[in-house]
Structures are given as C-alpha cells and as structure tokens.
Amino acid sequence: MKLRLKSSLALLMLIIAVVPAAIVGGLLLKQQSDVEENYRIDMLNRLSHTIEQEFDYRFSLLSTSLDVLSRDRLFVQAIDNFFLAGHVNNSLGTLVRNTPLIQAAYLVDDQWNEIENYNGIYGLSSFFKLENSFTPRISQHNKKGKQWVFYYNDEDLMPLKFNPTRRGIIVGVPIFQSMTNGLKRKPLGYLIVVVPIKNIIKVLQPYLKDGELVVFTNNPKGGDNKLDDKNNIIISQGVINKLTPTINKIINIKLENKYISEPIEYTMAVYIDKYIGKSPYINSLKYITIFGVIIIFLSLFSAGMIYRWIARPLGGLMEIVRAYSRGEYKCSDEELRFTEFVMVERLIRTMSKTIQAQVADLAVTNSELNAAYLEKEQANLQLVNFNDQLERKVKEKTLALSHSLLREKNQRSMLQSLLAFSHDLQAGNIIETIMTQVVALYPMAGWAMRTYVDNNNVWVCENIYKVDLDVKEVLPENHRGDYYCLPDGEKYLHCFKIKNSQNDVIGVIVMQYMELQHDDFEIISLFIRQFATELEGRLLNEELARIAVTDSLTGLANRKAFDINLEEHIQLFNRYPERHFGLFILDVNGLKRANDCYGHSMGDTLLIETSRLLVETCRLTDKVYRLGGDEFAIIVEAGNCDSCDVLWHRLEKVRAQINYACLPDGKRVEINFAIGYASTYQYSAEQISLVADKAMYKDKRYFYEKMGIKR
C-alpha cells in the first residue's frame, strides 16, 4: 500500500505534537492518583469507625432499656396478675417505640406461655426453641441476671410485614421476683425482644453515601463476605454496581456490654468506590488537554505552511484529473511547479483524446440497446398487471366463500353449546363454566366478568388486561341500558349487565371484540340470561344453607352446626390422637325467672348479651354455639388441659364481674351462667360431652344452693 504525501505529512506532525503531551500527562496523572488513593483510605477508616461506634451504642442503649424494664415492679407483678396486662402492653409499646432496633416484644411466664406481646404473633411456637437454649444457661448463671443474645434465621417471630427477611437477633432477659445479689432464684418469666435485620439496616443506613456498602457476617471463624449470601446483613445507600472497583476494610465487632452474658461476634466489611467520580483521570486530563491542544495547534500551523508549498501543485494536478474524469477537457491555469507534474499532465491530455473517440462509439450502441429494453419492459408490465387483477378477483371470491362457511360452522357450534351450557352451569363452578364457554365460542375475543355477590368485586379475565377495565365508563351503574359499547382502540368493549329476577344488577360481562353482528348479540344475551338465572338460584341455596346452621336470635351457630362440628372433631381426634380439643357446656341461670318477671323480651336480651360475652371471652379459633333454650356450648381448638383451664379462668372472671341485660325502659337482670367442661386430654372423645354436661349441672346446683333459690 502506497502512502499519500498529504496524509503522511499530517501523520508525522501529529506524532511530533502528541508524544510530548502524553509524557507530561502521564506524570500529572500519577500524582493525581496518589493523592486520591490516600484520601479514599482516610474516608474508609472514618466510615468504619463511625459504623462500629453506632452499632455498639445502639445495642448498649437496647440492653440498658431492657435492664430498666425488667426491674419495673408493676411489670414483674403483671406476670401473675391479669389486671396489669394493660400496663405490660403499654410498657412493651413504649420500649418498641423508643428503641429503634426493636420491632416486637414478648412477655412469657416461667413455663414459656405467652402473657402479652407488642407487634408479635399470638401463640408463637418458636418459643420452644428459645426455651431449650435459654433455660440451661439461666440455671447456671442465675446469680447474674444477665441478658442473652441469639441469632435467628428463617423463623416467624413477628408478622411478615415487619420482617420480610425473617432474620435478625433475639435478646432475652430473665425477670426475677427479687434482684438481691447472692440469692438463688428462679425466674418468674422472660422478656423477649426481636431485632429484625430491617431495623439494623434502617439505623445504620443514614451514615452511608451513594456507592458505599457495609456487610455484617455472623461467622466467628471469619468467612467470606459475599453480597449474595442471605445470612449476611447488607447495608447500602443508592444503587450498587458490582462492576465498579472498590476498596474495603474488614474489622471484627463484638456485640458486648455489661448486661450481655455471651456476646455475638460479627465480621464487618466496609466497601467504598475506589475512585472519586467516574474516573481518576478527569481532573488530570483537563491539564493534559490544554497543554496538548497548544502543542498540536502550533504543530498543525507549521504543517499547514509546509503543506501549502508542497501540496498546492499536487492539488492542481489532481484537479486536472478530476476534470477529465467528469468529461471536462479544458486546460488548467494552475502552475504545477514541478517537472514531473507537467509530464503527467501532458500524458493525461493524450489519453483523453483517445477516450473521447471510444465514448462516442459506445453512446450510439447504448442508445440502440435502451430502445429495445424499453419495449420489452412495457410488454412485461402489461402481463404483470393482468396477473395481479386475476389473482385479486380469485382471492375476493375465495375469502367471501370462506367467511360464509365459517359463519355457518360457528352458528352450528354455538347452538350445540347452548344445549350443553345449562347442564354445565348446574354441575360445576359457574364463573369457570361461563368463561370457558364464551372463550370457546369466541377465541379471538377478550373476556372479563365481575360479580357483586359476597362483596366479590374482582375481575376474572381471559385474553384482556385488567388495566383496560379500570375506567369509570365500564361500571354498569354509569349506564341505563342492559347493553352498552365503549371504544377501545381498533376494537370495542361490549358490556352486558347480569340481572336477577328483581331486575337488580348482580354482575357484568365485558367482551373486547370488533363490532357485533345481530346473531352474535342474540347468542351472548341468551348465555347471560341462563347465567343470571343459575347464579340467583345458587345464591338462594347458599343463604338457605347458612340459615339452617345459624341461631336466628343470637347469630351464633345452632345445634345442627354443633353436632356436625363435634362429630368432625371426634373423627379428627380418632385419626390423629395428638390433636386434642375441649368442650364447654354452659347454661344461663335465671332465664325462666327473667321471662316470668319481665317478659320474653328480657329473656331474649339476656340470651343475646350472654352470647356476646362468650364470644368476646373466647379466642378467635374457638367456636361458640347456642344449643337451644338457655344452653350454650364452646368447642376449644388445641384444647389440652392448660388451654381449657385458661378459658375457664377467663369465664370465671367474666362471671365474677357484674354484667346486666337491660331493656330500654331501664329494667335489668344480672347475667350469670353455669359452666362445665372436659378435654380429650383426660377423657375419650365419646365421653367429654357427658362429662362436661354433668359438670355444668353440678355448677348450676351449687349456684342455686348458694343463692338460696329453689328450682
């Protein structure tokens, strides 16, 4: 490859200009990099020290708060006193709100039964794991009264919304009756607080800037600080780019203070970007660019002057060549200056005369060929136009015939589907059946259905996006007719109201399709009328089934529901003997006297108020029944002896309080009831009903003897 004189000269001048600038720039760049590296190391040390101090301070504050709360006398007395539960709840709430690290707190007795919690989960099973680790250590160090710290992973110690990672730290504090040193004492209970990973991150994150990252590893042997390890605590600010170079510092942090018995060790790794800004070369390049531009400008100016003297004759020769190539055979007035250039110019003139003669002959031949080519193209164009017209007519006729056959086939398929549609509605799920049917009839259309029964306002969609339906115009209450159509881009939203026999709207069906033909509209309307009739019938059957197992006066489940549920619990217990349950039989005292003295309205009020007290006293998992007359029953889930005793004590407290059933005219009757209960933990499933009934009658006789009332 031969080089051009102009390009070679320009390349030489660029090398002379750039090489000195590159040398000077390299020296400036090295100095800038050294200063930046020292600055980043100092920032890393200060950030590590700040995070370490804040981590230690926050946990010291937590330990101090726990120690103060565990010495609160009312808090200690609340373990055995149900009436101080409000104080416990307020104390736990104050602890959680004033200590940023804590998210949930529990107070449990010495048997690890939950007394109260704040932001926790009732009936938490994870306490059994804590008990196995906590109790032996307390027995060995019962003179110290220290706090114990545990790390938990993948456990539900609080609602998922407070701790989506299900990881964190548990701090346990034993609570003693007396804090006098030197005494052997057994804890009355334990105060358990949960510190989720989310709160640790929230406390330490404000100390980080964009691009900074802190990783805590609970590995006493010193493991890898992997960013994708789910067991690590990862704290960052802003978006972290894993490809960005970083520098880091690793230090060991011990979760330790004067209150903690066995500290937890963490390995903390602090990462910051290795460079300030996008690149360490930015500031240095400013100086290099200015210096290099000056040198290059001077070099280019010198090269331009040399080029003007040498390359100007060459440019004149090139202009002559270009003119001849364009067919302009004129002599140039440019002075060529060099003998070699003059000789080349004469040679080109001689060659141009020969080329002109050859071009004239070729022009005559080319004109003849062009005329023949034009005649051939015209004939081909006429033939192509004829073929296109013929193909277009054939396609139109074929398409019309196909549409006619397809429509006839669809009509026959729709009529066959209508015959089987009524049976499918009665046999299966209504919504699934109708959605399957309409999608099968119109697979190219989008379908959505929404019913207004049982407060179910959710769209069921097929081939249509819910976002297209979240507009007010789709709602049936904004339209009077049973059918309305809304434009949706190239298609339409065809909306059909679903009405019951009273002409009330109970739902809506939306079809996303092109314009509907009359036959399609009639078929879809027939589907909707069948669907509305079946839906109304099912709703009526469901309401009748609910009324059959519900007491009309109190709203509780009735005797029929009790018999069904009791038989289910007995069968479940016979299959799984560890699934115990309890049975309470209750009888309202003085119902007949209330009816005789104040009328049946007082008796009804007495039964309603009694049912309300029973429901408020029981757990959400327990179920209350009215068996008939003045008799009630309660089935206790997980009803071992302890669970039944707890419910009995609660009922005793309610019975000990003075509660009245009052009429609007001011008349009132005291509420009292007899209690009898039994559990499968002590008796067989077939005997507990008889045992509970006998215990209830025994309690009822005691009440009448105590009150001196003859039955």
TrEMBL record:
<keyword id="KW-0812">Transmembrane</keyword>
<dbReference type="InterPro" id="IPR043128">
    <property type="entry name" value="Rev_trsase/Diguanyl_cyclase"/>
</dbReference>
<dbReference type="GO" id="GO:1902201">
    <property type="term" value="P:negative regulation of bacterial-type flagellum-dependent cell motility"/>
</dbReference>
<keyword id="KW-1133">Transmembrane helix</keyword>
<dbReference type="GO" id="GO:0052621">
    <property type="term" value="F:diguanylate cyclase activity"/>
</dbReference>
<dbReference type="InterPro" id="IPR000160">
    <property type="entry name" value="GGDEF_dom"/>
</dbReference>
<keyword id="KW-0175">Coiled coil</keyword>
<protein>
    <recommendedName>
        <fullName>diguanylate cyclase</fullName>
        <ecNumber>2.7.7.65</ecNumber>
    </recommendedName>
</protein>
<dbReference type="Pfam" id="PF00990">
    <property type="entry name" value="GGDEF"/>
</dbReference>
<feature type="domain" description="GGDEF">
    <location>
        <begin position="579"/>
        <end position="711"/>
    </location>
</feature>
<dbReference type="InterPro" id="IPR050469">
    <property type="entry name" value="Diguanylate_Cyclase"/>
</dbReference>
<dbReference type="GO" id="GO:0005886">
    <property type="term" value="C:plasma membrane"/>
</dbReference>
<feature type="coiled-coil region">
    <location>
        <begin position="369"/>
        <end position="396"/>
    </location>
</feature>
<keyword id="KW-0472">Membrane</keyword>
<dbReference type="GO" id="GO:0043709">
    <property type="term" value="P:cell adhesion involved in single-species biofilm formation"/>
</dbReference>
<keyword id="KW-0808">Transferase</keyword>
<keyword id="KW-0548">Nucleotidyltransferase</keyword>
<feature type="transmembrane region" description="Helical">
    <location>
        <begin position="287"/>
        <end position="310"/>
    </location>
</feature>
<dbReference type="InterPro" id="IPR029787">
    <property type="entry name" value="Nucleotide_cyclase"/>
</dbReference>
